[in-house]
């Protein structure tokens, strides 16, 4: 009986510590169109947010900005000194534009965090319709995690 108890405790310990260990990852990249007041939603509801985002996408005259919310995780001991970088591309050929945004990545509980990066008004006007993006989590010049869009 004590063997089964010991085996159960080891399995429980492994199950609880495995989310804390592992490699750095970018879990989710959410682009949000912003209106003239800087809002990405009118109500605090996912349904309302999605409906408002669809309206801003279909009526570009209402959109005044763009923000990227990035959810990421790193092993807790290696969570200091991180930077999140998003590279955006628009257009093709000689009319192509690119913009790079950077910001500090401050981890919360369990080494996870959200970082928000917003295009300036000038960058938004210059860039136009984003066709591809690439998000990287960096420590100095070393890339520790990457997520990119299909067209990158």
Summarize the helices and strands and which ones pair or pack.
Layout: H1 2-17, E1 25-34, H2 46-58, E2 65-73, E3 82-90, E4 97-105, E5 112-118, H3 121-127, E6 130-139, E7 142-148
Antiparallel strand pairs: 1-2, 2-5, 3-4, 3-6, 6-7
What can you see in these coordinates?
By secondary structure, this protein is an alpha+beta fold. The chain has a single domain, classed as Immunoglobulin-like (Sandwich). The chain is built from three helices and seven strands. The strands form two sheets. It has a four-stranded antiparallel β-sheet with strand order 4-3-6-7. A hairpin with a 2-residue loop joins β6 and β7. The protein starts with a helix and ends with a strand.
Keywords:
7 strands, single chain, 4-stranded antiparallel beta sheet, 152 residues, Immunoglobulin-like
Which percent range fits the helix content?
10-25%
| Annotated CATH architecture | Sandwich
Kindly, what is the distance between the CA atoms of the first and last residues, rounded to a whole number of angstroms? 56 Å
Spatial strand sequence of the major β-sheet? 4-3-6-7
Strand content: 35-45%
Structural class: alpha+beta
CA-based gyration radius:
20 Å
Oligomer: single chain
Count of DSSP helices?
3
The arrangement of helices and strands along the chain is HEHEEEEHEE
Q: Could you describe the largest sheet, including whether it forms a barrel?
A: 4 strands, antiparallel
Stretches with pLDDT under 50, minimum 5 residues: none
Shape: elongated
Tell me the total number of β-strands.
7
Mean pLDDT: 85
At the fold tier of CATH, the topology name is: Immunoglobulin-like
